[in-house]
Write a structure and sequence with these properties.
The chain is an alpha/beta fold. The protein has 15 helices and twelve strands. The strands form three sheets. A five-stranded parallel sheet has the order 8-9-10-11-12. A four-stranded antiparallel sheet has the order 2-3-4-5, with no helix packed on it. It has a three-stranded parallel sheet with strand order 1-6-7. The protein is globular, with a radius of gyration of 21 Å.
Length: 420
Amino acid sequence: MELNDMILVSIDDHIIEPADMFDNHMPAKFKDRAPVLMRTPEGHDQWQWEGTAVGTTGLSAVVSLPPEEWGFDPTGMAEMRPGCYDIDERIRDMDANGIFASMSFPSFAGFAGTQLDTIKDDELRSAVVSAYNDWHVEEWCGAYPGRMLPQAIGNLWNVDAIVTEIHRIAKKGVKALSFAETPYVLGLPSFKTEYWDPMFKALCEEDMVLNMHIGLSFNLFRQPEDYPSDHLIILAPQFSTVTATDLLVAGVFRRFPELKIGLSEGGIGWIPFFLDRLERHLSNHTWTGLDIGHEGMTPTEVFRKHFLGCFITDPSALINRDRIGIESIAWECDYPHSDSTWPRSPEKVMAEFEGANMSDDEINKVTYENTARFYGFDLFKDIPKEQATVGALRALATDVDTRTTSKAEYRRRYEAAQSA
């Protein structure tokens, strides 16, 4: 396959939410209690609500910044590429990178809405969640039909409210719900209980995927105090193993044989060993009586039925694709985070495909077909397939500047635009 003929769909990118996102979506009774984006005296942005302030860390928005300016320090929109928060600029950056469609996760609210736990008024929290989802569907995704793949968050502290929201957003065409991959970290019930079963049932009824993005599970790990940040960054993808084990051991798929789980930003390199270990455990440790469901299916077959793993770069895993299952693999860009391959994603992933000696059919499955099948997206409903290729998209974006640009320069442009 020629690089320009690829069709790339990123199953995991991120939004730096704009200041006006709640303006059109909060119910009247709660308008004055909606989260508000404020600028600190130091020039950093913070979302503030109900006595809580949440800012954006630098690594969440580093695309096109020089590496020496990366870090965990707080930042603001003035110091980042506009595609981080502006949908028009995001589409231009996707075109320049040859990416046809993207699924975006929240930032200030937490990947699954976990940051909203400080809202103690349950009705207000549900209103914020619904307003977030409506903005995401109607404004972020609705601005460019076919280019942005909608997903939602839920009120994690009220399972009945989650069920109501699932059925509501399904009518809007939402195909995925982002959920806390280890809810017990928040003091919520584990998957072993039946507490979350109404949510699982609603997801199956709506044929909606439960996306489990790494992040919350980091709290399970006690990092030595004298270790640098590199320690957790390197380990981070492996926490998806915890989520997969939690769900399988809890018997979730025995109770809900049609449930689908997207493992976001966890990579796929851990999956071959995990499957080997799972097979060994169920054949050797029969004394435990573990039943993961689907009598007559191997543990590997159960995993492949229920899970879709995604990767940014993972050359060794692609060589082991037959062990993972080619239909259980999807690709992501992770824009605008520090692991992102923007703006050379096609070149980087094609080099890995070639290194693994993958066929055109296999490449198509990984780059877009598996995502379309697993989530139920009709990718070419609004835009013809021939206009979705890397070459066709990049031809639309020859004027997009993808060069390294400093925070100071972005701030100069931002302030000039604000004063114009």
